[in-house]
Design a protein that fits this description.
Blueprint (H helix, E strand, L loop, with lengths): L1 H18 L12 E12 L6 E10 L7 E11 L6 E10 L15 E12 L8
Parallel strand pairs: 1-3, 1-5, 2-4
């Protein structure tokens, strides 16, 4: 009885191994650009912070398998002066190749993420 159960177990495992694709195959895709920016101002200024984020993303139509990732954080805490936070980011991708020879046809994946936070803190306006 034990032998039959063990034999059934090996047969089940071999059946699953034939279905699961090989772990050493890789995929190549279009290019990917990700740009993440966080700008935060927490202060007692009477004027809201001037926060700008200019992102320029471009890639050749034939771009394959390349990526560009940029992250940025600007934080200002305290005070009563006017806050100015400026950021510029530029991404350019081209070339690349698919080692498997398959053509990949599609646009570059562009992911711009922009978070701007402006918090008024009246406590900063108090004079001791």
């Amino acid at each position: 009885m034990k032998f039959a159960l063990v034999a059934m177990g090996f047969l089940s495992i071999s059946a699953v191994l034939n279905i699961v694709p090989s772990a050493d195959t890789t995929a190549s895709a279009q290019c990917v650009i990700a740009d993440v920016s966080v700008q935060a101002a927490i202060n007692g200024s009477q004027k809201p912070a001037r926060q700008t984020n200019q992102v320029d993303m471009a890639a050749d139509r034939s771009c394959v398998g390349n990526s560009s990732v940029s992250t940025s954080t600007q934080v200002q805490v305290g005070g009563t002066d006017e806050v100015v936070q400026q950021r510029r980011s530029r991404h350019r991708l081209s070339g690349g190749s698919n080692p498997y020879g398959a053509s990949v046809n599609g646009p570059t994946v562009a992911v711009p993420v922009q978070v701007q936070v402006n918090v008024d803190n009246p406590a900063d306006r108090l004079r001791y």
